[in-house]
Structures are given as structure tokens and as C-alpha cells.
From TrEMBL:
Any one GO molecular function term: metal ion binding
Encoding gene (name): metG
Species for this entry: Candidatus Aramenus sulfurataquae
Higher taxonomy: Archaea, Thermoproteota, Thermoprotei, Sulfolobales, Sulfolobaceae
EC number: 6.1.1.10
Superkingdom of the organism of origin: Archaea
Record's protein name: Methionine--tRNA ligase
Main location: cytoplasm
Subcellular location: Cytoplasm
Length: 570
């Protein structure tokens, strides 16, 4: 089976923050790493890229007195390096919307929608102060549904309703604050209404789609789907391919969604296999998308409708895993107010694997969740160090000490109920983790991994092999054989979350490259006679006063980054 994995494309007018990271990029990486172990590396592809078109970047470039291309060139290279080389995000292809492959594919795809595209004159907000038509998100005002006073013209961040600028109460230009006027202009529209019944039917019969995604999408559909404009009156973007559409570009949301396909095409073109992408898109492949909750309508309604309208047998999304919002100490991330931590700051504060583990453990799967330093400290010191690290270190140390670093054979005649209970847990946990991961429930999956580690520690305490070895060596050797199997199991399952640390465990086990492992080997004991390496602590606790040190540490990090960040991102 082929498995396609994607994270929502980060918009690169600035450096992403931790909320952006967990909302799509890190979550998708965890699943992709798991999927490679489960289904084989050759059967999985993981893609994304920098979303770099549209008015926000155009405006930011104007402020900085550079071209949009100059801004996104710097941003793309900087963010790409952070993802691939610092955060260890295992993309097969991290590309960009300025890719020639992407631009060519988008124009061809959009032209192929001709049966569902029509031209219509419409009245749009125009800022007479800034001398430009304003895209939906550059008009702000009060939401007519929930009363939120800072709603955007395309969507309300509080109630999630899709909006349009003309229905906002007290609209204002998001750039200068002036009240916009409304002027006529001609645009090309995708007739989304033609797919209302098909999208509803697809969602209702999809048994794997998370219920929260279904609820949001079906709620939107119940209000009636309306045509959506494919074009915009701005210059920075992919030129609209329609006759008579000179000076217009394709709406950034439509083209970014198509980037999932173009990134796959580009990957296989570079491998010299230009038809290889079809195995992941035109056959019965599974596809997993990791996004923030504000992107649900685009991924669960608009994107499937576009695929249906193409006339080709594109695979529709299998699972769309959306997160709620991650807050920082109870507040929304804000660069201007210096609230939060950005992805180039975080690795200078704490080890990347610690961040990866903490963020997945705090992943806002059911409700908005606040990153709290006291909770991060608890997760690292208690869960990562005590529950997992302590068990790993104790187990390998005892094999070093009591059996000359050799994994002993299992004597089944000596097994008791306590042994059998842990063996049963080791056999069942990978399936439980897999079931959660396949539903996009990554935090819930790590709960199962932690449960096994805790059971392993309780087992060692109950068996006390340091005493048992003096009384019944055969039973003591059974303890070592079982715990070493559990150590291997934990390393395999944790690889998706903390790949560098899991490889360190594998190095101590002398088991080679963990990325070449198979998921189901997490259920198996290490063969008897295998010689392991010397035990060494994989994790270390953070000092209890670490939270108090953070403000000063962050101040120093930010001061250094002001000198080393690319000039256009400072």
C-alpha cells in the first residue's frame, strides 16, 4: 500500500513559531516516520513546501522596500534549513510555490476545471489610501455570527465560519485601518456548489476521517456551498491562465492546495521517474494531511471538490488530522508583543528531541492547549527522563553487569504471571499506538508508549533482578531478556517522535540504524546471545530552576538572532 503524507504549507513571510510547528509540520513528520517503519520506506512519501504567494508577502515586501521574490528567497532557504537540519523533519521533498514544476502544474490543472469555471463581475473592497483591491483576509471587522471584533474577511478565528468582506460589520483595511470602498472588478470563479452533495456523501461514508473534521466540514456544507473566486487582483503569484485574465493571479489558497500534487510530481521528476507520482495519487493510496483547525474547510471541502472536478481519479484524503491552537503561557503567539517562541529560538534554549517530545505530549488534539514551562519541565524530567530514560538505562546496565553484555535466552518454563503480563503489554502496545497514529491521534499514541515504559519500571522494581540473580539466576536472566525486548520496543515506537535519541538507544543496543527497522519488530525480543554496548544515560533532567532561567536565556538568544537571521527576517 502507498501512503502519502503532507503538512500544510507554511506561509513564509516570517519564521514559524512553535504553534505553527506542532499544528502541521512536526505532527506530519511523526506520522511519516511511523509510516515508513510500518509500511516500508519505498511506500511512503512526505511532502510540503513554502507558501510564498499572495498579498501578505507583497505588503511585507513593500514595507521592507524589496521585491516579494527577494523576501521569499531568503525566507524559504532559512525555514527549509531549520526544518531539515535543525528539527530533523524528514521531508522527501520540501519545495516552494515558486517552483517551476508547481507553477506549470497549477496553470494546467486550473484550465482543466473549465466545465466548473465561470466569469463574473463582482464588487470587492478597495482601499483608496493604499490604492489596491483588498484580499478577503486584508479586511477586518466584526463577525456577524459571533460578534468577534477582529474577524478576517475570509474566516472568523473565533467561531470558524467562512466569511466574505461585505458581510463584516464595521469593515476596515487591515493594512492602514481605513474604511474600504467597494468597486467592481471581473473574476473567474470555481463553482463549488456543484459538489455539495458529492462532498457530503464522501465525508459521511469515510469511516477513517476524524469526527471533528467531519463536523466542521458538514456544518459548512449545511449552510450551502457557494462559488469561490479562483483569481485575485494582485501581481505576486501565479498568473491566471484564462484568456482575458491578464494582470490577475490565482488565489493563493487554490494553488497551495495543488502543491501537494506538484510536490509529489517534482520529487519523482528529480528521481528520473516522471510517472512515479501516479502511484500516490491516481491509485488506491492512503493520504494523511496534518493541519491547523482553521484550515479544515479548505482541505475537507474545497480541495476534494477540485480533485473531483478535474475528471481524473485522484485519491481523496483518507485522514485530515487537525489540531486546535497551541497557546504560550495562556496567550496567543505574537511576534510584535514578543509572546511565544519561534523555531530558530527554541533549539538554542533546549535540545530539539526534548522539544519534539514536549510538543507532541502537549499536542492540542481535543481543545486549545497552553504551553507552560512548568509542564514542559515535568514532561522532560518525569516522563522522558524517569519513565523512559531510567528504564532504558537500568535495563542495559544490568545486562552489562550480570551477563557480560549478552542478551540472555528466555526460559519459558520459568515465566510467571508478572513476566507474562509485561510480555503481553510489549506485544499489544505497538498495535495500540498504531491504531491511534492512524487516526492522527499522536498524543494519545504516546500515552500508550509511556504506559509500557512505566510497566517496565514497575516490573524491574517487583522482580529486583539485582537480588534475584543471587537466588535464581535463570529467573533473573528471564527478567533481563524481557526488559531488553521492551527497551527495543520503546526505541522503535519513539523513533517517530524523538529520532536522534531513539538512535542513541539503538547504538547502545548495537542494533544498527533504527530507520531501517520494521514497526512489528517492536513486539519481538532481541535474539539471545546478541552483545549490547555500554549503558549511558540517554536523557538528563533539566534543573528545577530552569523555568526561572528561561526569560534571561531567551533574551540572549533573541539578541544573537538579530545579528544572524537573514536581513529580511529580522
Amino acid at each position: 500500500m502507498k501512503v502519502f503524507v503532507a503538512s500544510a504549507w507554511p506561509y513564509v513571510e516570517t519564521v514559524p513559531h512553535l504553534g505553527n510547528l506542532i499544528g502541521s509540520v512536526l505532527s506530519a513528520d511523526v506520522f511519516a516516520r511511523y509510516a515508513r517503519l510500518k509500511y516500508g520506506k519505498e511506500n511512503v512519501i512526505f511532502v510540503s513546501g513554502s507558501d510564498e504567494h499572495g498579498t501578505p508577502i507583497e505588503i511585507e515586501a513593500v514595507k521592507r522596500k524589496v521585491s516579494p521574490k527577494a523576501l521569499t528567497d531568503q525566507a524559504h532557504e532559512y525555514v527549509k534549513d531549520l526544518f531539515l537540519n535543525v528539527w530533523k523533519i524528514s521531508y522527501d521533498n520540501y519545495t516552494r510555490t515558486e517552483s517551476e514544476t508547481h507553477k506549470k502544474f497549477v496553470r494546467e490543472f486550473i484550465l482543466g476545471l473549465k466545465d466548473y469555471v465561470f466569469v463574473q463581475e463582482e464588487t470587492l473592497p478597495y482601499c483608496e489610501n493604499d490604492k489596491m483591491f483588498l484580499p478577503d483576509r486584508f479586511v477586518k471587522g466584526t463577525c456577524p455570527y459571533c460578534g468577534f471584533e477582529d474577524a478576517r474577511g475570509d474566516q472568523c478565528d473565533r467561531c470558524g465560519r467562512l466569511l466574505s468582506p461585505e458581510i463584516l460589520i464595521n469593515p476596515r483595511c487591515a493594512i492602514c485601518g481605513a474604511k474600504p470602498v467597494f468597486k467592481k472588478t471581473k473574476h473567474w470563479f470555481f463553482d463549488l456548489s456543484k459538489f455539495q452533495d458529492r462532498i457530503r456523501e464522501w465525508l459521511e461514508r469515510n469511516k477513517e476521517m476524524p469526527e471533528n473534521v467531519k463536523a466542521v466540514a458538514l456544518s459548512w456544507i449545511s449552510e450551502g456551498l457557494k462559488p469561490r473566486s479562483l483569481t485575485r487582483d494582485n501581481s505576486w503569484g501565479i498568473p491566471a491562465p484564462f484568456e482575458g485574465a491578464e494582470g490577475k493571479t490565482i488565489y493563493v489558497w487554490f494553488e497551495a492546495l495543488l502543491g501537494y500534487i506538484s510536490a509529489t510530481i517534482e520529487y519523482f521528476e528529480k528521481k528520473g521517474n516522471p510517472k512515479g507520482w501516479e502511484d500516490f495519487w491516481l491509485d488506491d493510496a492512503k493520504s494523511y494531511y496534518f493541519i491547523g483547525k482553521d484550515n479544515i474547510p479548505f482541505h475537507a471541502v474545497i480541495f476534494p471538490a477540485m480533485l473531483m472536478a478535474s475528471g481524473k481519479s485522484y485519491s481523496l484524503p483518507t485522514v485530515i488530522s487537525s489540531t486546535e491552537y497551541l497557546l504560550y503561557e495562556g496567550q496567543k503567539f505574537s511576534k510584535s508583543r514578543r509572546i511565544g517562541i519561534w523555531i530558530d529560538e527554541a533549539p538554542k534554549v533546549m535540545d530539539v528531541d526534548y522539544w519534539r517530545f514536549v510538543l507532541i505530549r502537549l499536542r492540542p488534539e481535543e481543545r486549545d492547549t497552553s504551553f507552560l514551562w512548568k509542564e514542559a519541565l515535568r514532561i522532560i524530567n518525569s516522563e522522558l527522563n524517569d519513565d523512559i530514560g531510567n528504564f532504558v538505562n537500568r535495563s542495559i546496565t544490568m545486562v552489562n553487569r550480570y551477563n557480560e553484555s549478552k542478551v540472555p535466552p528466555l526460559d519459558e518454563s520459568k515465566l510467571d504471571e508478572v513476566d507474562l503480563k509485561l510480555l503481553k503489554a510489549m506485544n499489544e502496545t505497538p498495535d495500540a499506538v498504531s491504531e491511534y497514529f492512524e487516526k492522527g491521534k499522536l498524543k494519545a499514541g504516546t500515552e500508550e508508549i509511556l504506559r509500557l515504559a512505566r510497566e517496565g519500571n514497575a516490573y524491574l522494581n517487583a522482580k529486583a533482578p539485582w537480588d534475584l540473580v543471587k537466588k535464581d539466576k535463570a529467573m533473573a536472566m528471564n527478567v533481563l531478556a524481557i526488559t531488553m525486548g521492551v527497551v527495543r520496543s520503546l526505541a522503535i515506537m519513539l523513533y517517530a517522535v524523538i529520532p536522534t535519541s531513539s538512535q542513541r538507544i539503538y547504538d547502545q543496543l548495537s542494533l544498527g540504524s533504527i530507520e531501517d527497522e520494521k514497526w512489528d519488530n517492536a513486539k519481538k525480543l532481541i535474539p539471545a546471545g546478541h552483545v549490547v554496548g555500554k549503558a549511558s544515560p540517554v536523557f538528563r533532567k533539566l534543573p528545577e530552576d530552569f523555568e526561572a532561567q528561561v526569560p534571561k536565556l531567551l533574551e540572549k538568544v533573541r539578541s544573537e538572532l538579530e545579528k544572524t537571521r537573514p536581513p529580511l527576517l529580522r
